[in-house]
Write a structure and sequence with these properties.
Shape of chain A: globular
Number of helices of chain A: 21
Keywords (chain B): Membrane, Transmembrane, Transmembrane helix
Region (Disordered) (chain B): 1-46
Structural class of chain A: alpha/beta
Strand order of the largest sheet of chain A: 3-2-1-4-5-6-7
Shape of chain B: elongated
Oligomer: heterodimer
Number of domains of chain B: 2
Number of helices of chain B: 17
Transmembrane segments (chain B): 121-139, 183-204, 224-246, 267-288, 294-313, 320-342, 362-381
CATH class of the domain at 289-480 and 544-550 in chain A: Alpha Beta
Organism (chain B): Streptomyces djakartensis
Biased composition (Basic and acidic residues) (chain B): 20-36
Strand content of chain A: 5-15%
Radius of gyration of chain B: 37 Å
Largest interface: A-B, 69 and 57 residues
CATH topology of the domain at 289-480 and 544-550 in chain A: Rossmann fold
Chain lengths: 562, 400
């Protein structure tokens, strides 16, 4: 099977996002061929080069998103009118002007988008047209039209220019020459590594040649857009958000299957219009090998040590952890806490310094006897030194792994601790509950007392620790390994291709259709593809979705694994 | 294991723990009287407090999903949303979006940052004029072979200085444009202004009888005044272009619509061209006085206007029209010269009639003045259409 892998600022560039995942996917599915279509994000990224590619990657085509392409031929009068019509329709949808037409909103957006793409394919010159004064004028007209949204009506000239520039950038994939029969037209399946602009080539390939589209989003693109848009006037943010959400809806509507990295991402996708039947959860895969020795030798843990591993930043709420540890020390005086991690940015460094000060204030240095040198029960360390060569050693050092975040996406650290077979206490944020299932204790965020309760409960009960750790390791090996990730995508590929096979007319060398090129047996006479039985989402089997155990101070703490 | 009962573990906590555990003293009751059923923050409208806490997020948001994303980034989950009697964060965000009043006037968008004048280009634009003046002085002071050397060195130096002046600052071309080769045609036009009139004059009367000597007399005289004035005009041209850009950017921020903007920029453009013409005229008078040559103001003025407009269009990303017009102008000038020489062939005497008529009526300078004037007018009409569009003044994004 030939798979077109679409990325934006990712694989195969060394500094790309999600390179590791794509690399593992491509290497893991060596039985398929991969064509990589990459949009690069910056000049620096292009200069840094590619990761080594395995032989199953047959071709790589790249296009820069950061550089404005050539204007192309100047459009003729008729093409210009067509451009104005399509772009005006697009702008009208973004501004929220609802015509009395019977076509629903998504169709209008899609029609405008495909209209522009067809124009670019037949005439070229779309890039120049998007940068022209006509585009800005069309945008202005749409914003001033009756029925336009209030925010859009307030757009001033600089706002219009900013929106036009953003749209030009976002619609650059429309001008690419990837959609011919020797490009994306030749693949059996388009797999995009994220939503948004990345998925545009996939949408167009589906539109032009009927190639099915698979969308994988580990972080929902629309949500990232909201969180990362720089400060701009409301009109600009409104129009751009409208574009992104309409595009997301169109992508979800046209995709054959949409995969999410966790239930949280899935809820966003559902909210943005993805059909429930199309959604699958495929958990990110992690390399279990570095953690195997820890998981297989649970006795190496120090029974009185708590470990926190992660990147130091305010969202991790280490202050809360330190307060909880004060409570733990009061009840279990021999306990120690090891905080392993480095700050990611200057803000994180300042936070780390703050935490060090707080730890020094809360806990005086201690020594074994009057003649020994003492040290602090809370230690701040980093991996990579002789004492802790890797993250696995950090997890190995403690009996209980603690997660005290107030904000969390997919908690990688928690999954690693599970792979190490460690009992965990974590706060109820992000996808924690989904990851931990019933194999660890979960407390509310910003509640040091509850965190302390749960930790003390585990510290006093080695047998329970061992049981939870074993269950956690079994769960992690079942759900969060690379193998399951690749296996899931393999299954989805087969499913999509069996349901929506691309039928191509085989041509001979003169370009004439070749009769009998496809044997009659290629088409199964019964319509087995149509009989689609709803299958359960990958990864959300019954026991995986079981509710976690709450270990608040007042509620009885018990684990489902009991 | 502390599986015994609800308040048990909490009750065993010593009172000293409260000072460390409670994060917000005053909002939270002490550990002993905290009951699971007691509301933590006993407000009748918990969402109102939440809106108050995230006021900035709510007022900034353009749709409910933005509030949802922001709330989640602050650690609010569906389970937190349940406390506010909502099914999930999305419906909580919808309520918050609906309840926040956003009818305050949006702040005026910040005017796109205009480029500031810098020392480097200000000095660079002075260089061509200075070098040209030095070269002309050298031509006057030297003789024979040394004069030839001085002329060559001067030409090279002025060419390099001009190149430097248009490489940075307000006269530099926009990043996004596709460069088009106009250097050759500009060189031709400038050379013509230097040597063309003398050649045409002598050609009409049957010459030229020898190569130019580098002085204003002789059979093929050199007219250095236009060149000196034009090179000196680099500095005012840069400043006027800078002024035009800055004022246009400011208007971008204050105008309500594209029509408004166009109407406001048109007089600005005409003013900029007029300002440049007057500066050039003043410089022409100065150089005529200094060099003591006969004045030919129309030719230099029209050529200056043509080059200024072409540069202005190029700096704003329109390269096609300037390239076409400059090519056409240079071609017509060359053709005018060629017809005079071609008329010497037997049977082709009629070819020179138009040019000869012009030269005898208004002088040799009228030919380039007419040609450049027509070209400048065409470019002015084009610029009035193109440079008054907002997209010509859009700030460039430098995301690389």
């Amino acid at each position: 099977m030939r798979i077109g892998l679409l990325t934006e600022g990712g694989y195969p560039y060394v500094s790309g996002d999600a390179v590791l995942w794509c690399d593992r996917l491509v290497r893991g599915l060596a039985q398929h061929e991969f064509d990589v279509y990459a949009l690069s994000r910056s000049e620096q990224q292009e200069d840094e080069g590619w990761v080594p590619l395995p032989p199953q990657v047959r071709r790589v085509r790249t296009a820069p998103l950061w550089m404005s392409s050539e204007d192309g031929p100047v459009l003729g009068r008729r093409a210009r009118r067509r451009f104005t019509e399509c772009f005006g329709e697009l702008a009208a949808v973004l501004c929220g002007a609802s015509e009395a037409a019977s076509t629903p909103e998504t169709d209008r957006f899609g029609n405008a988008l495909y209209g522009l793409a067809e124009l670019a394919r037949e005439q070229g010159g779309l890039a120049g047209a998007l940068r022209s004064e006509a585009a800005v004028r069309t945008l202005e007209r749409a914003c001033r039209a009756p029925g336009a949204h209030r925010e859009a009506r307030e757009a001033r000239v600089p706002d219009l220019l900013a929106v036009a520039a953003h749209l030009d950038r976002a619609l650059r994939p429309l001008s690419l020459d990837w959609y011919e029969d020797d490009g994306l037209g030749a693949v059996d399946l388009c797999h995009t590594a994220s939503g948004g602009t990345t998925a545009l080539p996939g949408l167009l390939a589906r539109h032009f040649t009927g190639v099915p589209l698979l969308v994988t989003e580990y972080g929902v693109r629309l949500r990232t857009h909201y969180l990362t848009t720089p400060d701009a006037p409301p009109a600009v943010r409104f129009l751009l958000a409208a574009f992104q959400s309409r595009l997301a809806a169109e992508v979800y509507a046209r995709a054959a299957v949409v995969t999410a990295g966790n239930a949280h991402a899935r809820r966003w996708q559902e909210r943005c219009g993805a059909d429930r039947d199309k959604l699958r959860t495929v958990y990110p895969g992690m390399d279990a090998r570095p953690f195997a020795w820890v998981g297989e030798s649970p006795e190496c843990a120090d029974p009185d040590t708590l470990v926190w591993v992660g990147r130091v930043e305010p969202a991790k709420d280490l202050v809360s952890l330190l307060h909880a540890f004060a409570e733990i020390r009061r009840r279990e005086p021999r306990t120690r806490l090891r905080i392993v991690g480095a700050p990611a940015d200057p803000g994180g460094a300042a936070y780390l310094e703050h935490c060090r000060t707080l730890a020094a204030q809360l806990f005086p240095d201690e020594a074994d006897g009057p003649h020994a040198t003492g040290d602090n029960p809370v230690s701040f360390e980093e991996t990579g030194g002789p004492e802790l060569p890797g993250r696995a050693d950090a997890y190995a050092a403690g009996a209980v792994t603690v997660l005290s975040s107030v904000v969390e996406g997919f908690p990688i650290g928690l999954a690693e601790a599970m792979l190490c077979g460690r009992a965990t206490v974590s706060t109820d944020v992000g996808a924690v509950v989904e990851v931990i299932g019933g194999t660890g204790l979960v407390v509310p965020a910003r509640n040091p007392r509850a965190l302390a309760e749960a930790c003390v409960a585990l510290l006093r009960d080695p047998e329970r620790r061992a049981r939870l750790g074993a269950a956690a390791r079994a769960r992690a090996l079942e759900l969060f390994t690379i193998e399951q990730n690749i296996e899931a995508f393999h299954g989805i590929y087969l499913e999509i291709v069996s349901h929506t096979p691309v039928r191509r007319a085989v041509l001979d060398q003169a370009g004439e259709p070749l009769p009998f090129a496809v044997p009659a047996e290629a088409h199964v006479p019964v319509r087995w593809a149509a009989a689609r039985t709803p299958r359960p989402a990958v990864g959300s089997t019954g026991w995986a979705a079981s509710s976690p155990v709450r270990a608040t101070g007042s509620v009885t703490a018990q684990e489902a694994a009991r | 294991m502390n599986d015994s009962g609800s308040p048990g573990p909490a009750a065993t906590v010593s009172p000293a723990a409260e000072t460390t555990v409670d994060r917000e003293p005053g909002t939270e009751a002490t550990a002993t009287d905290r009951r699971p059923s007691a509301p933590r923050r006993g407000a009748a409208d918990p969402v109102k407090a939440l809106i108050h806490r995230h006021r900035e997020l709510c007022e900034r948001a353009v749709d409910p999903l933005e509030i949802a994303a922001g709330l989640e980034a602050h650690g609010i989950t569906d389970r937190t949303a349940a406390r506010f009697r909502h099914r999930d964060v999305f419906s909580l965000a919808e309520e918050m979006y609906a309840r926040v009043s956003r009818d305050g006037d949006a702040p005026l968008p910040a005017t796109p940052a205009a480029p500031r004048p810098r020392v480097d280009w200000a000095l660079l634009t002075l260089l061509p004029g200075t070098l040209c003046a030095a070269a002309v002085t050298a031509l006057h002071l030297t003789q024979g072979r040394a004069r030839l050397c001085a002329a060559a060195a001067g030409a090279l130096a002025v060419a390099l200085a001009l190149r430097g002046a248009v490489r940075r600052g307000p006269l530099s071309a926009a990043d996004r444009v596709t460069p088009r080769r106009t250097t050759l045609w500009i060189c031709w036009l400038v050379t013509y202004s230097l040597l063309g009139d003398g050649l045409l004059d002598s050609a009409v009367t049957g010459g030229p009888d020898g190569l130019p000597t580098g002085t204003a007399d002789g059979s093929w005289p050199l007219t250095a005044t236009p060149l000196l004035a034009l090179t000196l005009a680099c500095a005012p041209a840069a400043w006027i272009a800078h002024l035009f850009t800055v004022r246009a950017r400011r208007m971008l921020g204050t105008s309500r619509g594209l029509e408004d903007f166009g109407a406001a920029v048109r007089p600005l453009l005409l003013g900029a061209v007029a300002l440049f013409m007057s500066a050039l005229a003043a410089l022409l008078i100065l150089s005529t006085e200094a060099l003591g040559e006969p004045a030919a103001p129309a030719e230099a003025l029209t050529l200056g206007a043509l080059l200024f407009l072409a540069r202005l269009l190029t700096t704003h990303g329109f390269t096609y029209a300037p390239a076409v017009v400059l090519t056409a102008t240079a071609t017509v000038q060359a053709a005018a010269l060629a017809t005079v020489f071609a008329s010497r062939l037997p049977g082709c005497g009629f070819l020179a009639t138009p040019v000869e008529t012009l030269v005898t009526t208004w002088g040799a300078g009228s030919v380039p003045a007419l040609v450049c004037g027509a070209a400048a007018l065409a470019l002015l009409v084009h610029a009035a259409r193109k440079l008054t569009s907002a997209s010509a003044h859009a700030p460039q994004d430098h995301t690389r």
